[in-house]
Amino acid sequence: MSKEMLRLENVSKEFGDGDSTITILKNISLSINTGEFVAIVGPSGSGKSTLLSIVGALLTPSNGSVMIDGENITAYKSRRLTSVRSNKVGFIFQSANLIPYLTVKDQLMLISDITQNNKRESLNKAKKLLNDLGISHRMKNYPNKLSGGEKQRVAIARAFMNDPDIVLADEPTASLDSERGRKVVEMISYEVKSRNKAAIMVTHDERMLDLCDRTLYIEDGKMLERA
Amino acid sequence: MFLALKEVGQSKIRYTLISLIMIAILFLVFFITGLANGLSFADSSSLQNLKTDYIVTNEEADGAVINSTLSEDQLKTIEEQLNQQSTPFSLTISAVEDKQGKEVNVAYFSVDTEKYSDIEIIEGKNISELTGNEVIINENIKNHGYELNDIIVDKISDTPMKIAGFSKNQTYTFLPVIYADFDLGMSNIYGDEPSYNAVLYTGEKVDISGFDTLTKNEAVKSIPGYTETQGSLMMMVVFLFIISAFVSTVFFFIITIQKLNQFGILKAVGADTKYIAKSIFIQVILLTTIGLSLSGLAIYGITQLLPGEMPFKISPTLMLGTAGLFLVLNLLGSLLSVYKVAKIDALEAIGRVE
Description:
The complex is a heterodimer. By secondary structure, chain A is an alpha/beta fold.
C-alpha cells in the first residue's frame, strides 16, 4: 500500500554569483514512495545538500516543480514554506543540533509547541518515540550530558515528532564512529519502515548504503540511479 | 512561552546578572523621580495649592511672585479692571523660634480671610474662621514640637500668634507656610507700609496692561531655582532611561547573536519569526517586570527608612507611569533582536550552503 509521497520534476537550481550564474542542480527528476528509504551520495560540491534543502522546503527551485504528498510547494513564499516544514517535513541534521537549554523531553515537546498540538497526546508520543529509540532513561537530561549517538537518536525522535510525510537526514552519521553511525541509520530505517514514511538521507559513507532501498548518485548537479 | 521560560530557567546566572543591573538602574530611576517630585513639591506645593486661577504680579518680577511688589495704587488699578472678586496676596519670609529656642524659617501668606477660600485643613480652624491673631500653619511645624492652640512668636516683629489650625501640603521653598490675615501685619514686618506681592482672582482671565498675569503653573516654574533643579533631575532620569534601554537592548542583542545557529534550527524545524520573537518579548517582559517589582519593593523599603524631612515623594501613579514607560522602551529595544531573528535563514541549520 505504498503511494508516491515526493515527486520532483526537472528541478534546477541556479545561484547568481556576480554577473555569472552557477548551476547547482540540472533537471533532476525523482519520485519516492511511502516506506522507501533513499540514499543520495556524491562528492562534496555535487549539489546533495541543495537538493535536500529544496525537498525540505528550505529553498525553492529555479525551475521545475516539487510535490509533497500531491501538494505542489514550488511557488510557496517563505511563510507557507515554514508551515510545510513544521507539518510535513522532519529534519535530522549533520550534528544533532539540539537546543542546549532544553531537556531531551523538551526537545520533542518544542515541536508540538510550534505546531500547537495537544500537550498530553504529544507527551505520550514523545515518550513512545524515546522508548522506541532506547533513550527513555535520558528523558530529563540536557544535551551536554548525552553521547554523540544519544544526541543523534534524540534528533531522530525530534524529526518524527510532527508525524512528517518525509524525513530528511543530512549526513546523520558525520559526527559518529562507524559502529554508532550504522546503528543510527538502522534506527532511521526502522522508524521509516514501521511508520510508513518516505525518507532521504544524504551521506558520504558508502558502508551505510545496504540499509537503504535505493541509492541515487549525484555529480555536478546531475543524477544517476543505481539499483 | 515554552522556549522563553525554559531558557531563563537554564541560564540562571546570565539572567540573574541582567536582572540585578535592571533592579539597580530602576531603583535609581525611581529614587531620582521621587526626589524630583518631592523637591518640586516642597518647593512649590503652597503655590500649587493656592485657591486661585490667576496671579497678577508686576512686570519686573518675571513671574516670580516673591520678587513682585505692588503699591496700594497699583492694587486699586488692578482691582478696578477685574470684574470678579479678587484678593491681594503678600508673601514674606521670616522666622519663628521652636520649643528649644532654635530658629525655624517660615513663609507668611497674608490674605484677606474674608475673601480667600478655605484650604485643606487636617486639624483645627480653616481660613474663614480665623479671628484675632489666629493663624494656620503647615503640619510639618509639628516636628518642632508645636501643637494646636500653642502660641508662636515671629522673630522679626515679635508678634505672638495662636496656632488655630494645621494645613497640609503648604510649603514654599521648603519652608512651612503660615496663612494669616493682613490685619496681623505680617505683610509689613520689613517696613512701615504693608507690601503686596500679587493679586489673586478666580474665573476668566483678564489681561491688565502694565502687569503680568500668571497661572499657578507659571508661577511655580518662576520660583527662583525651581526650573533649574527640576531640569537637572529630569535630565538624570532621561539619561537613566536611555542607559537602561541600551543595556537591555544590547544584552538581548548579544544573546540573540550567540543563538543565531539555534534560531536557524528552530526555523528549519518549522518555527516562524513570530514564534521566536514572542519568546524574546516574553523574556524582556519577564526580566523587566522582575526588575520593576524588586526595585519597587526596595523603594518602598527605603521610604520607610528615610527621615521625614527628606523631600521624597513617589505616588503609585508616578511609579506605574515610570514602569510602563520603561517596559515600552525595553520592548522597543528588543525589536533590534527581532529584526536580527527575522533575517536568519533556516538554511544555516543545514550546516553549509553549496
